[in-house]
Amino acid sequence: MLRRLLALIRKELQIILGDKQSRLLVVMPVIVQTAIFPLAATLEIKNSTLGIYDENHGPAAIELTQRLRAQAVTFTHFIDIDNDHQLNDAIERQRALAVIRIPPDFSAQIARANATPQLQLLLDGRRTNAGQIAAGYIQQIVQSYQQDLASARTGAITSTPSSELVARAWFNPNLDYLDYILPCLIALITTTGVLIVTALSLAREREQGTFDQLLVSPYTPEMIMIGKIVPALLIATFHATLILIAAVFIYQVPFQGSLLVLYAGIILYALALAGVGLFISALCSTQQQAFISMFAFMMPAMMLSGFAAPVENMPVWLQHVTWINPIRHFMEVVKAVYLKNAAADHIASLAWPLLVIGAITLSAAAVLFRRKTA
Amino acid sequence: MKQEPKHKVRKAASVFSFRRFRALCHKETLQIIRDPTSILIAFILPVVMLFIYGYGINLDTGRVRTGLLCEDTSPDARQFASSLTGSPSLHIIAYDSLPAISEALTRSQIRGFVIIPSDFSIKLRRAESALAASASVEPAPIQLITDGSEPNTANFVQGYVLGAWQNWLAQRAASRGLAAPPAISLENTFWYNPAAESRNYLIPGSITIIMTVIGALLTALVIAREWERGTMEALLSSPVTRAELLLSKIIPYYFLGMIVLLLCIAVAHYLMGVPFRGSPFPILACGSLFLLSVLGIGLLISTATRNQFNSSQIALFVAFLPAMMLSGFLFEISSMPAPIRAVSTIIPARYFVSAIQTLAQVGDAWPVLRRSLIFLACTSVLFLGLTAKLTRKRLE
Amino acid sequence: MSPAVTITDLTRLFPAAPKPALDRVSATIRTGRITGLAGPDGAGKTTLMRLIAGLLKPDSGSIRVFGSDPVRDAAELRGVIGYMPQKFGLYEDLTVIENLTLHADLRAVVGRERDETFARLLKFTDLAHFTGRLAGKLSGGMKQKLGLACALLGAPRLLLLDEPGVGVDPISRRELWRMVGDLADEGIAIIWSTAYLDEAERCDDILLLNEGQPLYAGPPRDLTARMNGRCFLLPVPAENRRIRLAELASRPEILDATIQAQNIRVLIRAKTGSESAHFKFETGSAPAAPRFEDAFMDILGGAKTGASALTHILRDIPRDGATVIETRDLTRTFGDFTAADRINLKIKRGEIYGLLGPNGAGKSTTFRMLCGLLTPTSGEARAAGIDLRHSPARARQRIGYMAQKFSLYGQLTVAQNLAFFSGAYGLHGAGQRDAIDAVTNCFHLAQYHGIKADALPLGYKQRLALACAVMHSPHILFLDEPTSGIDPVTRREFWTHINAAVQRGVTVMVTTHFMDEAEYCDRIGLIHRSKLIAAGAPEDLKSQAVTDENRHPTMEDAFITLIERSGL
After folding, report:
1. Do B144 and A165 make contact, defined as CB atoms within 8 angstroms?
2. How far is it, in rounded angstroms, from Cα C148 to Cα C89?
3. Minimum Cα–Cα distance from B314: chain A residue
4. pLDDT of amino acid A156
5. Same domain, yes or no: A123 and A178
């Protein structure tokens, strides 16, 4: 029985690794994604362009623009804007992410006591998230300018506040986006690998007639399923290991938790997902159908996993719906293990839905399998 | 050898035949309609995706759950606490011990927490007297811990707490009769989208993803399928020309894609209330050129691999993921490193994202649209041209 | 008669292959004649077809089709060439009529011409009832006929048919010949590639290829005439016919031995000098008229028959006379179409049972139900005493199955396929190695061990499939058209193996379209329009078909008569 299963598994791996094109397809996407994603998927704002619309040209305006130009990360390009037409152009053509408008009476207002000089920050409504982050940076610069102004004017009395806010971030002290995206990537990439092996390759067997040959052999439908699940687990583990190595050694994101727990999580996740894949393949008769159905599952599941936007930002009902999404749970597990070195009971509390999902999808697939094949 | 008299069909064979073209289109259309998954991908998936991007992907953090550990029971501490509670962006949850609040953060029940130490009030009073006496000041510390595993949210939490803290400081200074520093107000105005709703650009942007799925993923399979099933051999030996063959693959999917585009715009506009300020012509023009580009990519993959299993995977990695990651739809292109920015310039989705977001929010802003149209025209010629070059009228 | 195709010194290589697929082939194909392209698997028949159709480019040499170059002048020639590829080129998600309409449009058959052509083709292919059915839901043979109908559209001047007879039943093949013959009379040049030598014999000219080399070109009867005096018929009683056959086939002076009705037909090797002398001692042997097949066997040096090595692989199964396959009112419907209608079968251990019938009659449906691949709508099917549908794995351990369509793993090498299928049936260690070695020798697979199954020539694919089906020493062998499309040399080999298996007590259930193969069966079931219309030993069926005009009907006559008489 075990030997027969081994034969089935070996066959699957031989097909996956059999020729150059398919071998390449096992490794290349992972390497390319690991090379590009962490660098591309960032919500930080860097290298942006700030438009400076100085209608004042007074000393305060010059001081402020110099301060804006001095910080080097968020905005590295600046364009001077002299009139409303240029302002319109800069934002409409997305040449600048934001334009700061310094009104004509700015310096005069600054000089006056108790005045409230007004600055305008004009942002592109097509990129409000980036705009909000950029606005935050500018706010800080304006604030520090304002404080320095105050201290220059009134001596040291009000310059130092009586309290200080000491901010620290746990798990990722520099709030580096890489630390966030790499654990997510482990979840995203293992997903495609598992689904392709379970959903797509079984549909191919059906299309090529080899499935019938399996059915007349002494394999039970459950054994055929295991024959697909085990290679899927192996592929998932292999992919996860590749990304893990890249994350720790190339991107230098320190791994905090236990490898054993992480791999246990990967296996559990791959099982749950394999259930989904097998369920899809039991429903479909051609590769095209299987691929499209797989995609129709994968796409929403990835988007609602919390990787593109936090689950807690979703409407409450949708948050409940995401409970059935295995990627969401796995992503939480990976982040908890990788970044937080979470305690065992914590991991268990994150991972048990995977067990439930796996049990449901696998048994549903088994039932469907039996019904379709008998 | 005796020369046969020229047969009448001979001449007709080399030129474009509308009848053959129509027959092939008809065949392709029937195949689309007969496959239940095309309904799934063309009508159900787009609507699902629109709703996901409209409601599921929300980058505008609402009220962030933030913990508060107030070890000081003085009125000063309570005053600061109430300024936190009063912040419209923070949802403050009180905890009574450090282990409990740390555990809550680790378990992602809160995204950050504030600790007001037990000697806060004493230190604060001491600092204020020192300030009044112009002596050296040791400010009273307040700790803010954020959850670095969600850096974006952590940044927001930091900003919100900082704002509340500054408010509190200013109020306190005013109440004690101290001169307020000149308050430079920075007024943020989001053009085109005054309420700064991310769904107003995420939904139009997601149409890019939907069209990529239809254009590239669906067609990545169609030519490979003909090779796998041996129908290509029959077609190649018939009088069908390369142009007829390619056009018959493009046109039905083009119309399918355009129907889906219009469906998406209708759903987004009428059901989800997303503004669409552009006029029909530029929308159709941009949509058409983009669709042709992605059709080109799909057909190119299909023609090159002749294998459904591999071409579907390649389509996923070459068409779908770049549209998602490198189009500027979710992530700022300018923030990416230079080599990746360079890669993004050949991705048609990038230009369509920019065009459709502009059309939705700005309207017919021709300077932006012109650039997108030119690039999309180039990519569609490039990919369709490569497909045409690879399409042989032979088996090898 | 002017040449339609002139081939001069044509050579074509494929990158991976050591030998050229075609090696300096020259030939002339004339209009108004049917030119048969014969030869064993891997002879280069399909490559030559594709070269003539302009789908491949020659490496050297030239082809002229009506004076034009098929590659350079492809656009001109495509309108005058009709080509039916081996895989038929049908769209499975289109209906019969939609497939026809597509090809009619592509080939400019419009208006009244189209209506007339459709009517004629539908009648000829017997697909008139099925115009609204999806091509994917047609049986294998019906697909073949539809593919042919599509190629016949547009009145081509050169018709290239790549194995049109594969999987087509005798009735349809007769009609096919009649139709193609008419086309030839209209002045069309026809190239008909075939592995069926009775078909080759009916061609006006023959081009015989072997491993890319042309062996013979000319009318088939000239080649057949060389065999005069070398063929004999030897009457042998039914009960020891198989043993005699194996014995005769292994004798050095005998090139070929087959069963023909009550006789064994033998072909003597050429070099033995005065041939008839050898056969004097065989009582009752009578000279027989040579056939093209004899010439073919002669030119290729005969089949590797004789004692099958399978005997060593298969365990001996005690012949207890038990009924091993039994069906009771086995019925299967698809929607409102009944594919199998109350089929009752009883097959005893050690029997060869042949299931015959026209395309789409329901043979494959019955077959698949017996193997447990398809659930009967009603009735019961039992194999080895167990209902295979919900049989434990152990019951399936006792059966071997060879599908009609090649269904091993094409992406795996031959060795990997053998290892997998032996492993699937629980073989391991030394036992597995022995079984693999044995079938490798038995089916001559050693040279192909490292090759991907997809890249094998058809005959070797079939050998591999049979090898995979017997490695675990099954009690019952289900063979669905095992010899479809393969050449006579390989077919002889197959039947040697099947006979060997039966001698070990294996029960064999086989479907076939070769009437000479039907002669090898102990009993035959004839299925027509989803019903079992006749069953019995070949002799019984033939005697049922005796009419006043035909006192000694062949198996093919019996087949046709019984079907026509059934009135269904």
Report:
1. yes
2. 10
3. A25
4. 47
5. no
